[in-house]
Amino acid sequence: MAQKTILITGYEPFGGDTFNPSLALAEKLDGENYKAYEFNCVKIPVNRHLCIPTIERAIEKYQPEIVICTGLAYGRAGISIERIAINVADFPWPDNEGYLALNEAIDEKGPAAYWSTLPIRAIMNNIREAGVPAYISNSAGTYCCNLLMYGVLNYISGHNLNIKAGMMHVPYTPEMAIEKDFTMPTMSLENMVKAVRTAAIAAIETDKDDKVICGFAQ
Q: CB 97: neighbour CB atoms within 10 A?
């Protein structure tokens, strides 16, 4: 049986940080196997103009069955599984190249939004059962994580690809909070890795998403 691929993306550090847990977790999963699937890490630049082309090249190279994008969202108290990506780049601060996108369409000809095609309720349930806090979020923001999620789903739709894809946000690690703001919610890198691994397995094993109340304010 041919090896199948799960792409796990993580972002380079930004905003003055020297560490980004999304990239660290993706690197830890890189090369792992589950049944016929292999995890592959993709490092994404925090860059308005390079973010989407980077993941498009990775999709072309690996021909994955699943793409799980991950990013850092400080202030969130658990793994947040994003429901939707919107067609706007409206940055709260510049990217790593100093570019500040203000109310820009990600794709001038694209739809207003895309729904995640991951089984988000099953993922939430399975992560919680694994002992890690998780919830479904209704906003991926308007920075690079939303940009990436929209770009991935837009590419998949435009090329009629059969790929499940979506975005998950992770909190600060305890070490980051100590350095920056000790009042911030945190999570160990170990639990982040467990959560994303669990999400990927749920995406593989779930044909029809769970029916469960999952509303949350964010």
A: 11
Question: Which residue is listed with tokens 């990600």?
Answer: 106
Residue 100: how many CB atoms within 10 A of its CB? Answer: 13
Average pLDDT over residues 168-184: 93
Catalytic (active site) residue 145: yes
Exposure string of 23-34, with b = 16+ CB inside 10 Å and e = fewer, is bbbbebbeebee
Question: Which residues make Cβ contacts (< 8 Å) with residue 94, sequence separation at least 6?
Answer: 100
| Residue tagged active-site, from 51, 69, 169, 214 | 169
From 41, 51, 82, 214, the catalytic residue:
82
Q: Could you tell me whether strands 4-11 and 37-44 are parallel, antiparallel, or unpaired per DSSP bridges?
A: parallel
User: What pLDDT score does 208 carry?
Assistant: 82
Token pair for 7: 């792409």
pLDDT digits (tens, 9 = 90+) for 129-153: 999 999 999 999 999 999 999 999 9
Token pair in block for residue 13:
């550090």
Please indicate whether residue 169 is annotated as part of the active site.
Answer: yes
Distance, C-alpha 65 to centroid of its chain: 15
Total-model pTM? 0.95
**What distance in Å separates the CA atoms of residue 14 and residue 145, rounded to the nearest whole number?**
12
